Recover the amino acids of this structure.
C-alpha cells in the first residue's frame, strides 16, 4: 500500500481527509502513483501534472524520505520505504509569493 | 416575489449574495473554493440553479465547478482544454512567435436555451464548448485558426478571450472579444469567424486602424437589439448598430474614456453604464472619486452617478467582468471593485450602496433574477 499526502487545497478539491492510500504492489514510480491517484480522484488530473505532457506543474514538488524527488524521471523507482508504505510520497505546493 | 442572486468571483474564492426583490438587505454565503481565484461564475438562463464556475490557481491549474442547486453544492467537472491539432504560435510581447499555451478560463457563457451547453473563453485566446454540462470541452478552433491568429498578441493581463455574447434571435451568431486581438463574429455557430474592428483606433499600434490587435476590454449587448453592441476599449467607448461591421466612438463628455466594464440597462437598450478609470498607467478613478457614468442616449451624453459612492481617497479598479444588471422592473445595477466592495443600485444607477465591504479583490459579478 502506498501512502500519499496532498496539499490542503488538493485535499479539499478531492474531498479527502489526511493521507490517501493507494493499492500498488512492488516497485513503484512517480508516474505509477500519479496515474493511480488521478484514476481514483479524476479532479486531480491536471492539478499536479499537465494533462497532455504529464510534466509536473511548476509550483508542485515531490518529496519522500527527506529527499526532493521533483527532478527525478517520472519512471524512476521510488525508495523502498515508499513502496512498502513506511514513508509517504508527499505532493507539496511550493512556497511561492511575496 | 422575485429575488436576486449575485455570483461574485474574487482573487480568493467565490461569494454568493442573495436578496429579495427590494434589494435592500443581502445575505452573504462563502467563500466557496477558498484560496482559489474565481475568474467568473455564471448561471444558465435556461435553469438558474445550474451555475458554472472557473476556479484557477497558479499552483494547481484550472478547475471548472458546476452547481445544480443554485450554488449550495458543487462538483468539479472537466478541466481539460486541449487545443485542436498542433496549436502553432501567436506573437509574444516582443513580436516573436510564441507557442499557444492554455493558462486559465477567463469567462464562462452558458447557452441561452440548454443548461448542458456552455462556452468557455480561455487564455491563450481560444473558445471552447461543452454539450455535456462541462464534463468534456472541445475547441471551436475556427476562431484561433483565423488567418490573423498568428498575429494576435497578449495585452498586459495576458491574451484572454474574455467576452462571449450569444445572440438570442439567431443561435448561429456569437460575438467574442480578445485582449489584445479585438472583436470577432460568427454567423455559423462558431465554425468561421470575422474580425469586426472597423472604426476602432488604437494609437499604440503601428497601424492604428489595423484589422486586429485592438485591446478590447469588454463588450455588451441588449437582447432586444442584437445588432447594437457597446464596447469599452482600452481607451474609447464605442458602439455599433450593424453587428460590428462599423464602430463609432461615443465617449462624448466622459472625463476619461479609459476603463474596463460596460453594461446595458435590462429594459432600456440605449441606457449604458461605464466606470471611467484615470488611465492605462493609473488604474483607479479620476481624482480618487468613484463614479458610474450613465448614458440614456446610447452614448455621447453621459451623467455621473455618485450618490452613495466614495468621492474621495478611492483608488480601486473595476475589472471587465465585474458589472452586471438584474431583470427586475426597476433595473438593479451591480459592480465589484479590486478593493473588495460590491456596490448595488436598486434604482438603475441613481443611488448606490456597498452591500459588502471587505471581500478579496473582485474579479467578476453576475446577477441572476429568480422567480
Amino acid at each position: 500500500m502506498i501512502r500519499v499526502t496532498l496539499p490542503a487545497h488538493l485535499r479539499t478539491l478531492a474531498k479527502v481527509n489526511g493521507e490517501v492510500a493507494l493499492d500498488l504492489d512492488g516497485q513503484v514510480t512517480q508516474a505509477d502513483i500519479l496515474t493511480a491517484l488521478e484514476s481514483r480522484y479524476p479532479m486531480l488530473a491536471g492539478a499536479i501534472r499537465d494533462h497532455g505532457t504529464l510534466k509536473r506543474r511548476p509550483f508542485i514538488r515531490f518529496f519522500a524520505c527527506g529527499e526532493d524527488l521533483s527532478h527525478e524521471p517520472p519512471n524512476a523507482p521510488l525508495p523502498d520505504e515508499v513502496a512498502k508504505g513506511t514513508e509517504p510520497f508527499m505532493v507539496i505546493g511550493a512556497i511561492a509569493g511575496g | 416575489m422575485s429575488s436576486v442572486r449575485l455570483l461574485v468571483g474574487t482573487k480568493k474564492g467565490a461569494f454568493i449574495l442573495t436578496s429579495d426583490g427590494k434589494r435592500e438587505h443581502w445575505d452573504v454565503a462563502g467563500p466557496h473554493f477558498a484560496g482559489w481565484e474565481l475568474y467568473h461564475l455564471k448561471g444558465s438562463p435556461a435553469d438558474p440553479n445550474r451555475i458554472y464556475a472557473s476556479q484557477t490557481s497558479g499552483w494547481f491549474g484550472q478547475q471548472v465547478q458546476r452547481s445544480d442547486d443554485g450554488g449550495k453544492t458543487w462538483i468539479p467537472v472537466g478541466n481539460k482544454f486541449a487545443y485542436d491539432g498542433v496549436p502553432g504560435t501567436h506573437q509574444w510581447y516582443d513580436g516573436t512567435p510564441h507557442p499557444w499555451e492554455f493558462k486559465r478560463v477567463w469567462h464562462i457563457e452558458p447557452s441561452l436555451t440548454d443548461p448542458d451547453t456552455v462556452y468557455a473563453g480561455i487564455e491563450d485566446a481560444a473558445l471552447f464548448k461543452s454539450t455535456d454540462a462541462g464534463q468534456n470541452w472541445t475547441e471551436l478552433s475556427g476562431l484561433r485558426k483565423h488567418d490573423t491568429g498568428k498575429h494576435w498578441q497578449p495585452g498586459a493581463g495576458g491574451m484572454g478571450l474574455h467576452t462571449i455574447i450569444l445572440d438570442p434571435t439567431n443561435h448561429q451568431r456569437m460575438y467574442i472579444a480578445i485582449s489584445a486581438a479585438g472583436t470577432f463574429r460568427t454567423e455559423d455557430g462558431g465554425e468561421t469567424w470575422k474580425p469586426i474592428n472597423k472604426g476602432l483606433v488604437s494609437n499604440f499600434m503601428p497601424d492604428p486602424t489595423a484589422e486586429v490587435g485592438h485591446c478590447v476590454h469588454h463588450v455588451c449587448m441588449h437582447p432586444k437589439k442584437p445588432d447594437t453592441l457597446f464596447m469599452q476599449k482600452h481607451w474609447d467607448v464605442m458602439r455599433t448598430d450593424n453587428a460590428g461591421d462599423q464602430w463609432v466612438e461615443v465617449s462624448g463628455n466622459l472625463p476619461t474614456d479609459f476603463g474596463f466594464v460596460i453594461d446595458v440597462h435590462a429594459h432600456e437598450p440605449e441606457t449604458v453604464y461605464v466606470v471611467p478609470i484615470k488611465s492605462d498607467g493609473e488604474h483607479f478613478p479620476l481624482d480618487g472619486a468613484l463614479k458610474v457614468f450613465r448614458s440614456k442616449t446610447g452614448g455621447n451624453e453621459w451623467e455621473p452617478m455618485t450618490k452613495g459612492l466614495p468621492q474621495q481617497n478611492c483608488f480601486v479598479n473595476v475589472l471587465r467582468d465585474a458589472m452586471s444588471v438584474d431583470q427586475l422592473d426597476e433595473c438593479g445595477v451591480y459592480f465589484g471593485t479590486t478593493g473588495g466592495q460590491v456596490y448595488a443600485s436598486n434604482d438603475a444607477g441613481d443611488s448606490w450602496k456597498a452591500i459588502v465591504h471587505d471581500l478579496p479583490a473582485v474579479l467578476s459579478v453576475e446577477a441572476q433574477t429568480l422567480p
Summary: Chain A has a mean pLDDT of 96. The radius of gyration of chain A is 12 Å. The first strand of chain A starts at residue 2 and ends at 5.
